[in-house]
Amino acid sequence: MRRPRFLLPLLVPLLFATLYLAWGPAPTVFPDSYRYIRAAEVHRGATPQEAHRTALNAFCVSRADGRARERSLQPLAAPRHVLARDIADACRAKWRTADDLTTSDPRFQAIFDARWGYPWLLAGSIQLAGPLAGPKILSAGVLGVAMLLTYLLLRSAGTTRRAAVAGQAVLLATPLGWWTLQPLTEGLVLCAALGAAWAFHRLARDGTKRSHGLAAAGLLASVGLCFWVRYSTALLLAGALAVAAIVLAAYRRRRGRRTPGTGRLLGTTVTAALATGAAVTLAGLPSTQTTLQDTYTLHFKHPLVDDPWARLARSNVQFWTDWLQQQLTHPAFLLLTAAALYACARRNRVLGLTACAIAAVGLAQAAAHPLPAEAERLGCLMWLPVVLGLPLLLSSRERLPKGRARHTPATGEQP
């Protein structure tokens, strides 16, 4: 009796979603999450004041729950529910009459007003389950989609089914999984990046004009989704994929291997990059200069600085020096990344190139905001080579099914 193989990629997502929704902790409502919930409430028809109160209550309850959990573990601490109630009441009183948790400056608010996608999706989940349970359900669904895309991408890259399922588990175990579960835009950005990576890999392979057309449409749609969620990341993603396509085209030309897919890949990625840049300019969205001033004026609470780029350079020197020192004492990320890149170099270089391009997006985001409190979230895409590369090590030790061509170690393309 044949096993229903189509259920295998659903096993890990469904099992995790069941456990998380039944017993998992509530997601952390960050200040950015507060703004997304507030925007979602406005989309649902609430007045700005009502939206502020609803989002503030969600923020304060989440904050109180986390702090009460920590304090209740101290000797002679009050009961957890009493601590949570007092902390939440103090939080509401502090910001009840404020317009925002950080600042009401229109330049700061414009940065979040331009992130249209996530609040619209959040509005539906809040309508379904409220401002605390709703984001939890949405995040679990987004993580499930990300795990399915991981499976499809690894299978497209030639791994076995068990190796692709292992990739789903690796995704859960990295910071990518944790940040996807938070009420932030990181989860949808990850889905867009994985969708773009799948399309990139399909275009890089030999195929029919129709299959390449579908892959090109998938890549453009993925970049479009990312633009709808967070336009700054979409600009970096499209640019990184265009650079990766140029590198791949140059490599194949040097090796004397020209395929129609390479030209289509190059044309699609360059088109996506140019279109994204033009959309940012035509829509008048906040520029990098605005975000730098936001950083170095503490959200426009101080006068504008004359040298934001010079300050950014100095901050990056200090930040990355400290980061490397920390990695030397806790080298898990560097060791796992090295193993993953080795596997990609041996088994599928196109997949490795794609993963490195997307990891560069995370690196660029962290470099644009070299703040220790933001580094893990903004740089979480740097873990993608680990998610996609480690399963190749497992796949190399397994026997591929009959009829499945094994990729060549040199290029990762069908021989």
If you had to describe this structure to a student in words, what would you say it looks like?
The protein is mainly α and 415 residues long. It has helices spanning 8-23, 31-43, 48-71, 80-95, 106-113, 117-156, 161-173, 175-180, 186-204, 209-229, 231-254, 260-283, 288-296, 308-329, 332-347, 349-368, 372-378, 384-396. Helix 7 (161-173) packs antiparallel against helix 18 and helix 15 (332-347) crosses helix 18. The longest helix has 40 residues, at 117-156.
How many strands appear in the DSSP assignment?
0
Low-confidence stretches: 399-411
Biggest sheet character: none
Mean pLDDT, all residues: 91
Q: How large, in whole angstroms, is the Cα Rg?
A: 23 Å
**Span between termini:** 33 Å
Shape: globular
Percentage of residues in DSSP E strands:
under 5%
- Global structural class: mainly alpha
Order of SSEs, N→C?
HHHHHHHHHHHHHHHHHH
The residue fraction in helices comes out at over 70%
**Tally of helical segments:** 18
Q: What's the SSE blueprint?
A:
Blueprint: H1 8-23, H2 31-43, H3 48-71, H4 80-95, H5 106-113, H6 117-156, H7 161-173, H8 175-180, H9 186-204, H10 209-229, H11 231-254, H12 260-283, H13 288-296, H14 308-329, H15 332-347, H16 349-368, H17 372-378, H18 384-396
